[in-house]
Task: structure prediction
Amino acid sequence: MTLSTPSAAAVHTPKVLESLDPAIAAHVCNVFAATPFMNALGVRVMVVAPGRVETAMTVLPEHRQQHGLVHAGVMASLADHTAGACASTAAPGIDVLSIEFKVNMLAPAQHGELYCIAQTLRAGRRVSVIEADVFSIVPGTVATIADRVVRATVTLSVRARG
Amino acid sequence: MTLSTPSAAAVHTPKVLESLDPAIAAHVCNVFAATPFMNALGVRVMVVAPGRVETAMTVLPEHRQQHGLVHAGVMASLADHTAGACASTAAPGIDVLSIEFKVNMLAPAQHGELYCIAQTLRAGRRVSVIEADVFSIVPGTVATIADRVVRATVTLSVRARG
Amino acid sequence: MTLSTPSAAAVHTPKVLESLDPAIAAHVCNVFAATPFMNALGVRVMVVAPGRVETAMTVLPEHRQQHGLVHAGVMASLADHTAGACASTAAPGIDVLSIEFKVNMLAPAQHGELYCIAQTLRAGRRVSVIEADVFSIVPGTVATIADRVVRATVTLSVRARG
Amino acid sequence: MTLSTPSAAAVHTPKVLESLDPAIAAHVCNVFAATPFMNALGVRVMVVAPGRVETAMTVLPEHRQQHGLVHAGVMASLADHTAGACASTAAPGIDVLSIEFKVNMLAPAQHGELYCIAQTLRAGRRVSVIEADVFSIVPGTVATIADRVVRATVTLSVRARG
Result:
């Protein structure tokens, strides 16, 4: 049993909002590229903006639990890491680390794509709080509220990088 | 980038407490065997007892985040699934599904083994609540409080199987 | 030391959206009226709508902690109960009970009014999930994102009343 | 409707473990005495020890919700504040503030006493994590696992006082 990275991950180029400091955008993308577990899951960065990051991944057989649904741990991992990226957009030169997160499973996800939207609730000097929703969608369609399968709230510690 | 299952997973035989209904013990082991994501992470069932399940997994490079620490999502996945198994020990013929969970990262984990101990806080007819701690240990040693890296609390929905 | 109910609570009439079943609206208002702890805190129902309830309370000296800020427990109580009311709007004849909640303190609140907006994330047959935000506002003004002091996520068990 | 403080609160003297720095013990007791909301609920400090604080309060009619059970917000308030006191025992001269907490209701509480036991999961330089359990007991009896009605996990920010 192995986790194979969808090849799309390697070639995908995220949309970066012009209003975002390019150094921050580069940092966010570099962190995803340098995170083995995100690569193993096949997570792609889709959008990087001030206070908001969006990511996607393709559901593969090895992401499932015993009933064929996407494992809660897969969705939690996606939400947590996207939240971390989102918290990183608050300022240049910061590093963030998850202190804790809480995940509510709102509906089951089975196949297609998982799309995660993380948004900043609080960007603090020491502690940030991010809301991250995961949507289960057919590839290429837009996520709506009806497709939301997970709501996560992530608390992160913020420090200067160095 | 792939996730390779430690071969130990295939051959490991969990300790089952005699006080546990053998049908329940078999169900717990079957659920782990039938869960692709747990197999992909290399999770082994170590102990199955009434109201308590213990699991272990070997930290591999693909489980890490950008700083070389074990990804919070890996530890959350281990805690969530072990909690589900623990909730399943409450009665024969039940099926459980995570409603939500919360995970606090208490200390970083880097290598060696992750060992998870899940214990029942409430075994209800409709809702169960499980505490799951993850420990970072050197293989073969016993987990102590000082090795605890994660505290998770998991709420599960309980239903009759079938 | 006593908690005195602002007299406004007794005379306040909530706005009820026409699209809401009047029996549900009456139930929500009755539940607040029949809840001693909400009365002790001085909580007023402001808006009742399908999938959404808004409440308010006036900060009094006895709601504070040692630094003069509103106690986290006060805001959590307001969020939890408003979330329960919100979950109750999903269908007539249901009763809800909090299974668990999580509260993030985003900013301190000190005086004036607390205003709570609860919205439905999932309205299930057995389990509902509600997001409840608390805002710290000057009486009579409208709550904005900048005034948000608490984000709560509440999981509730749903049953038929009887 | 008012919240009346049980007179016991004024005269109760907590047990302080000898192994605890007296300056820390005094600080914990002073914080409770200086917290109007804890006084309004009638919370008494019972035990102060390194990494552990125990408190109690008498259930009064105004602490209840619409079904006559103790309101979840009351138990959450007790757990949160006791957790804060517990985090304060880690070192002299620190101040703590709740970042977030999560509360699971394990069983209903109706009358008698609420007894809270808070224990340290992690005492950090910047962030501490405390587990706080609330028990529903008949006055004068000892809390057992069967009496546990709430499990809370509280994350706190730690700073130097000044």
Notes: Chain D has one domain: 8-160. The domain at 8-160 of chain D is CATH 3.10.129.10 (Thiol Ester Dehydrase; Chain A).
